[in-house]
């Protein structure tokens, strides 16, 4: 006599499989999402630094010094617009296009509400709000901040990148990050206390974590520092899975 599972046993087994799948699939999806975002972040970080090196090789001038030099030649009414310098920097990326029309600037209402806001709340100032928006071949958005010469620091300007462009979630610290140019021709995560201006870099993880944590009600502008290390700002696990889970 052949033995077989009863209908009840089969249904129970399928039910158990369904419960296990319901528990594990979200975890797997979160891991995959984190891995994808991490890959996009690291690629962006590498290409920003490669562009900075190429810029220096062709101009014999770090990008920070170049932006300061052209600012000195402008009138007070135009020195705050960093479109010209960002356009030159973006020439070291492939397939770059410049946004046009309403919302083309980071501080225009249309662009803010759709792309650079916090939880759909309009904020009239951003870490990078002084240039036209540029998009590269893979869809990443780039925006630049004020000319660095007007701040008493040895780095700048800030450059903000949405590492997956118009794709969601469009949140600071998840797919939008703030970087800064240095005097020694590098691009590094921005770790200053002030989001909207250039301020001296904070020196400890505890200080930097104040501006990148799960209870942020404002722009999380220092998150690139922890994203690069893959370290959660609260010290509990990694960045790309533990910290971003549910964000």
Features of the shown structure:
alpha+beta; six-stranded antiparallel beta sheet; 11% strand; elongated
Notes on the protein architecture:
This protein starts with 6 loop residues before the first helix and ends with a helix. The chain is α+β, with helices and mostly antiparallel strands. Helices cover 38% and strands 11% of the residues.
Topology:
Elements: H1 7-59, H2 63-71, H3 83-90, E1 97-98, H4 109-115, E2 134-135, E3 141-144, E4 155-162, E5 176-182, E6 187-189, H5 205-209, H6 223-229, H7 239-243
Antiparallel strand pairs: 1-2, 2-3, 3-4, 4-5, 5-6
Q: Work out the oligomeric state of the chains in this entry.
A: single chain
Tell me, briefly, the overall form: elongated
How much helicity do the residues have? 25-40%
Low-confidence stretches: 107-124
The description of the largest β-sheet is: 6 strands, antiparallel
Q: Going across the biggest sheet, name each strand in turn.
A: 1-2-3-4-5-6
Span of the ends, CA to CA: 56 Å
Order of helices and strands, N to C?
HHHEHEEEEEHHH
Summarize this, please?
This protein is an alpha+beta fold and 247 residues long. The protein is built from 7 helices and 6 strands; from the N terminus they run H-H-H-E-H-E-E-E-E-E-H-H-H.
